[in-house]
Give the backbone structure.
Amino acid sequence: MPVELAPGVPATLVMGHEDALHVLQSPERFPATSAEWQKKVPVECPVRPLLASGQTPARTSGVEHSRLRGAHMAALGRVDQHAVQAEVERDAVALINEFWHRGEAELRGQFAAPLVLAAVNRLVGLPEEMADEVARVVPALAEAGDAVAAVAGRRTLESLLGEAVLWKTTAPGADVMSWLLADDDPGWSESEVVAQLILIYEMAVEPTIGLITNAIASILTDDRMDAALGGSMSTRDVLDAVLFDNPPLAQWCVRYPQVPQLIGNVWLPAHRPVVIGLAASHRDPAIARGDRRGNRSHIAFGAGAHACLASDLALLIATVAIDQLMDAVPDMELAGELVWRPSPFHRSPTAVPVRFEPARSRPY
Ligand code: HEM
């Protein structure tokens, strides 16, 4: 289906599940490298910063992609998931303790966003004194409406992470930044390591916040999910249902055919972005039948050569977040209308205002 990613920026949206898998599993026909497309798109194009090419696995193809992806996999594979679980639990309790006695909260700003950011900062090995500045600019990574703000935010983040990398070269720790720096295979410069860290912040922060907020929104508004509060669905079942019905990256996995390509009976022009409608493909009757409990055929984490490298970590963080929240404030209800963020790619509420019974003993 022809769409515009921004005024005057044409793309093709793939909506069928089989077509989506076909594109994602044919990286030689549908590479992720956007360099040619960028040459034709003006710098003020609002989605350009988000789709810009860079030497990261997300925007490379073939041998280079395998090499860079291998380095990310090696680093992320060393993360101690038990430690992540314990730290996220501790942070969740601390955040809930800040608002539980008030009887109201805004769960994106006061819970999901700080929880995820702290988890990603720790994973990366960001020096604590940089956390506030990084928190201010990280939202620019998901900015798809204002090229100036997106570029300025990315530049600031680059410079902060550049400082962090320099510091880390002298004081390595048990974290992704140190493991990437120590990886001899790519043999990369400090600025190349910064590009990898920016990709991690880009792919990890907003989508994981989106998964948590979309899950909370579903629990508060959808009777089927509400049953989760009564214990009839596991948190993992709830998260899978959310990844099906309301994936935080609703449209993503952008590919750029180098020559015209045929999908079904439609020719896709060369260098015109092909965007996978992840949310739309989940509504394809071929996979969207009946009770989907235990059905994990969604592609909310992508598929094929570029599939998400850290879906286990994202699910771990989201599971702990939802479990701690439901345990502490099971009686919460929505205290205002949900406004969904305007973006061609990300889908999550801009705020999740809730109220609950405040007159209880301290949960923890
Ligand atoms: C709910 C949270 C998340 C969602 C929905 C998500 C979704 C995705 C999707 C759809 C892709 C495929 C992109 C493509 O095909 O072009 C992807 C790739 C990727 N994700 Fe995730 N992700 C999440 C969390 C994370 C986290 C926590 C990390 C890191 C700590 C991460 C790191 C990456 C990286 C590095 C890639 C690029 C892989 C490649 O191009 O080879 N993601 N993610």
Notes: Residues 190-221 form the longest helix (32 residues). The pocket of protoporphyrin IX containing FE is lined by residues 32, 57-58, 69, 72, 199-200, 203-204, 207-208, 211, 248-249, 252-253, 300-302, 306-310, 313-314 (CB under 6 Å). Residues 2-355 form a domain with the Cytochrome p450 fold (CATH 1.10.630.10).
